[in-house]
Design goal:
With 418 residues, the protein is of the alpha/beta class. It is built from 14 helices and 15 strands. The strands form 3 sheets. A 9-stranded mixed β-sheet has the order 5-4-1-8-9-10-11-12-13, sandwiched between helices. It has a 4-stranded mixed β-sheet with strand order 3-2-6-7.
Length: 418
């Protein structure tokens, strides 16, 4: 099952500020950084890091080649990323407060240059049952939904940013809607007061009655995620709490990417004839993993700016040098759990981080994320206890334990190295 994301591609100008700007005020930022971003790009990156085969379709300006290159480096198919030289790429001005909250000014640029023909060409490689992921940060959303439905695709829509056009779309024919609380209340009623009286599960139930055949996922910030599967009662998945919140910009996009992973795994199981209870269990396990991934994303600055390609390449190199060239290698988390990422390898160990040139790997990494790989290996033989040897941070071990709580019963000891 392939996922195509027709989504935005932005250059993010990020400013660390003492507080958000108020009307008539000039404030000096104490740090400025540039990142690649856009809800579309961020979600494609999350899909790739979740181990999902995916493609991105969108339009960039002459200034946006870095966006295409970044996606390609992350393993995303960019055959349908086109360039228009007469318009600037989409870009943002993002304020980040000391509390890690953000305020965003957005110029859409080439993200509003999509046409119906562009969409038709982008989906031409897909087959019935594949997934089309959309956000509301480009134009031609109605065209994309209609063309996708005609082709028999599963439509997953993240209506962000929310506007008055969203309730007018044929959302009752989508396979899944992924919304935050504000978007969900706006979808329920453009009259904010009408939705304020509903609690989380009441809101989810009301939307479920309106869209009975659509899986609904509503992110609730620190409260977690509320989920309604067609024919099932709503369920709340608690958030994974972290202490060091640095930047919440990419949390929603990270969750969306990993939630699409959960949906595709469940749909794949359904197509293989698995019973409904098993399909639901697969989806719920995937949502727990998505919640954890979203929590990780707030512990470092930036949305899509950290690649794990270098780390994976180094792992292949070290395994080969150790005479273990056939050992399985899975891509791990790109971020620490509870502190900001610190980039020091180039200053201390040279550009590669190992102090020596590193050749391109001769094989691909295991398609499973490292945390899932750990769970599968450790739980494979229930009668055996396991020693885990961690050569670096314990991020992937912690994620594995979060994904499968029984893991801790199987691990005899954890040996720390480095």
């Amino acid at each position: 099952m392939h996922v195509l994301n027709i989504g935005s591609l932005n250059i993010d100008n990020v400013y660390q500020v003492p507080h958000f700007l108020r009307g008539g005020e000039t404030v000096a930022a104490y740090r400025r950084t540039l990142h690649v971003g856009g809800k579309g790009l961020n979600q494609s990156v999350a899909l790739a890091r979740a181990g999902i085969a995916s493609s991105h379709a969108g339009i960039i300006g002459r200034d946006g080649e870095v966006l295409k290159n970044f996606l390609e480096a992350e393993g995303v198919n960019v055959a349908h990323v086109e360039m228009r030289a007469d318009e600037a790429s989409g870009h943002t001005v993002i304020q980040i407060s000391p509390e890690g909250e953000n305020a965003i000014l957005y110029y859409p640029g080439t993200n509003t240059c999509l046409t119906r023909e562009f969409v038709k060409n982008a989906v031409s490689d897909l087959k019935e049952g594949d997934v089309l992921l959309l956000q509301n940060e480009t134009n031609a959303i109605r065209d994309a939904i209609e063309i996708g439905l005609e082709k028999g695709l599963r439509i997953v829509f993240n209506p962000a940013p929310f506007d008055r056009s969203v309730p007018l779309l044929p959302l009752n024919q989508t396979a899944a809607l992924i919304l935050n609380e504000g978007e969900a209340r706006g979808l329920y009623s453009m009259d904010e007061a009408a939705a304020e009286n509903l609690d989380d599960l009441e809101l989810l139930t009301a939307l479920g009655e309106r869209y009975p055949n659509t899986t609904l996922l509503i992110t609730l910030g620190a409260r977690g995620v509320a989920v309604r599967i067609p024919g099932q009662s709503p369920k709340l998945f608690p958030a994974y709490r972290v202490d060091a919140v640095v930047d919440t910009t990419a949390a929603g996009d990270t969750f969306t990417g990993y939630a699409v992973r959960a949906l595709t795994l469940a749909w794949n199981a359904e197509e293989k004839g698995e019973d409904l209870a098993r399909c639901r269990a697969i989806l719920e396990d995937g949502i727990k993993y998505a919640v954890t991934a979203a929590a990780l994303s707030v512990t470092r600055a930036g949305a899509g700016n950290q690649t794990i390609e270098r780390v994976t390449k180094n792992a292949f190199f070290v395994a080969k040098m150790a005479g273990m060239g056939d050992v399985p290698i899975a891509r791990g988390s790109a971020r620490p759990l509870l502190r900001p990422q610190v980039q020091v390898c180039s200053e201390i160990h040279g550009e590669t981080g190992l102090g020596v040139p590193v050749a391109e790997p001769e094989r691909d990494p295991d398609p499973r994320p490292a945390a899932q790989f750990i769970v599968d290996v450790v739980m494979r033989e229930p009668e055996k206890s396991v020693t885990l040897v961690a050569t670096g941070p314990l991020t992937n071990v912690a994620l594995a334990a979060r994904l499968e709580p029984k893991l801790v019963e199987r691990v005899k000891q954890v040996v720390l190295m480095g």
